[in-house]
Design goal:
Structural class: mainly alpha
Number of domains: 1
Shape: globular
Oligomer: single chain
Order of helices and strands: HHHHHHHHHHHHH
Strand content: under 5%
Distance between the termini: 47 Å
Helix content: over 70%
Number of helices: 13
Radius of gyration: 20 Å
């Protein structure tokens, strides 16, 4: 009887590297509330403007180092691609602004809710726009998530609009990036370049008015605002590297790190209230996600390779 041996390093190394890259991306995203909370005092719009301007510089440098100038010019010169990327730019900009607003308002629990809902929104968008069929388990997961949001709305007396905007803006962003068919680095660079003139102009105007937090005497803001570019771009690139190396089921499990950390920070560190109404609502959504994950595991199995166009 032959003895089973471990896979050769050539086969196991990409998976290990993918896990490390995926963990890096989702952990950074998970601690975003703590990072942007440290920028208290700066207006959400100023933070987003810095995030865009410094990301554009960093991504242009990365494109130059990886010699992707031709791909960048091709994306900027293709009318169809540019149209889709213009739409995705508005969506990701909205997502960033609403997320920072949520952190400043002490609504991190809603951001957690939004990113828990996001995978199920993506399923619905795939059905509506890409002709992807929903099996009975996916239908059940969507119904449970919708029930959770409806319960929270009826019992709290207000629509969880922050969570819904975060979930839908990011879901629609992923849809447009998939249709645009451009790689992660080039697409993100084009998006930041489209917004960079507005962001830079706004930052210069703030400086001229004496209303900017950057270079206003706070060392914390002088360090953290420019660093927002790297904090924005590098996790996206780590995610792209992880997606190329890992199975869909693995990526599916890793993606829950981010909203889970948001949830822990909101309730455990920031002291946001978590009522019985929240518990019922989150329980419905978590049950829907459990069904979704179990169905993904069943469909893709241990030997099914990952075929994914990373759009985050």
């Amino acid at each position: 009887m032959s003895q089973q041996t471990d896979p050769p390093p050539a086969q196991s190394d990409p998976a290990r590297r993918g896990i490390l890259l995926g963990l890096s991306a989702y952990l950074v995203w998970g601690f975003f509330p703590a990072y942007f909370r440290a920028l208290a005092g700066a207006a959400p719009l100023e933070i987003v403007a810095h995030r865009i301007a410094w990301s554009a510089l960093l991504l242009l440098l990365l494109c130059a180092l990886r010699r992707q100038g031709k791909a960048l010019r091709s994306a900027l010169g293709d009318r169809r691609t540019l149209l889709f990327l213009s739409g995705s730019t508005l969506l990701i900009g909205t997502n960033w602004l609403v997320f920072i607003y949520a952190v400043e308002r002490g609504e991190v629990l809603q951001s957690s809710l939004g990113y828990f809902i996001n995978p199920l929104v993506s399923i619905l968008l795939g059905f509506a726009f890409l002709g992807e069929r929903l099996n009975r388990w996916q239908q059940a997961s969507l119904l449970l998530a919708a029930s959770g949001v409806l319960y929270l709305t009826l019992h709290s007396g207000q629509v969880p609009w922050i969570a819904l905007i975060l979930a839908w803006s990011f879901g629609l962003y992923g849809l447009l990036r998939k249709v645009a068919q451009v790689d992660a680095l080039t697409g993100l660079t084009v998006e930041t370049l489209l917004l960079a003139p507005l962001a830079t102009g706004y930052l210069l105007w703030l400086q001229a008015q004496g209303e900017a937090m950057f270079l206003a005497g706070s060392l914390r803001h002088d360090l953290l605002l420019p660093l927002a570019g790297a904090v924005t771009a590098l996790p996206l690139l780590c995610f792209a590297g992880a997606a190329r190396r890992l199975r869909l089921a693995t990526v599916g499990f890793l993606q829950y790190i981010t909203p889970t950390l948001h949830f822990v920070l909101a309730v455990g560190l920031f002291g946001e209230p978590f009522s019985a109404t929240h518990l019922v609502s989150f329980a419905c959504i978590w049950a829907g996600l459990a069904i979704y994950t179990a169905d993904a595991l069943r469909q893709f199995g241990p030997k099914k390779p990952l075929v994914l166009d990373p759009s985050r």
